[in-house]
Automatic annotation (TrEMBL), chain B:
<comment type="subunit">
    <text>Monomer. Interacts with PqqE.</text>
</comment>
<protein>
    <submittedName>
        <fullName>Pyrroloquinoline quinone biosynthesis peptide chaperone PqqD</fullName>
    </submittedName>
</protein>
<keyword id="KW-0884">PQQ biosynthesis</keyword>
<dbReference type="InterPro" id="IPR022479">
    <property type="entry name" value="PqqD_bac"/>
</dbReference>
<dbReference type="InterPro" id="IPR041881">
    <property type="entry name" value="PqqD_sf"/>
</dbReference>
<comment type="pathway">
    <text>Cofactor biosynthesis; pyrroloquinoline quinone biosynthesis.</text>
</comment>
<dbReference type="Pfam" id="PF05402">
    <property type="entry name" value="PqqD"/>
</dbReference>
<dbReference type="InterPro" id="IPR008792">
    <property type="entry name" value="PQQD"/>
</dbReference>
Length: 16, 90
């Protein structure tokens, strides 16, 4: 029932 | 230390991407200088940044949903988000 942990990450964009 | 989203920062849902690709569960973080697109685990971390939970608390809560949660990963991504001025320590 558990999801596999993956390294938290994010994409960043300069700038519903 | 307990992390929380800074004033003016919002974690929201990108309905446009969801409309065109329903396999992607995409959230976006809106802040004055830009937009961040976090992956699923970073989104899960951000959702728990309420100014009440510590990093160990967040890791423990994530452990109920994910196998193999690493507290260091939580601390590392929060440090990066603090650098981007998206998160602050309460």
């Amino acid at each position: 029932e558990l999801k596999v942990w993956t390294t938290p990450d994010f994409e960043e964009y300069a700038t519903m | 230390m307990t992390p929380r989203l800074r004033r003016g920062v919002r974690l929201t849902y990108d309905r446009t991407r969801q409309t065109y690709d329903r396999t992607r569960q995409t959230h976006v973080v809106l802040f004055p200088e830009g937009v961040l697109v976090p992956n699923a685990t970073a989104t899960a971390v951000l959702e728990l940044c309420d100014g009440e939970r510590s990093i160990p608390d967040i890791a423990a809560a994530l452990g109920e949903r994910y196998a193999g949660v690493r507290e260091d990963d939580v601390g590392d991504v929060l440090a990066r988000l603090v650098d981007r001025e998206v998160v602050e320590w309460a």
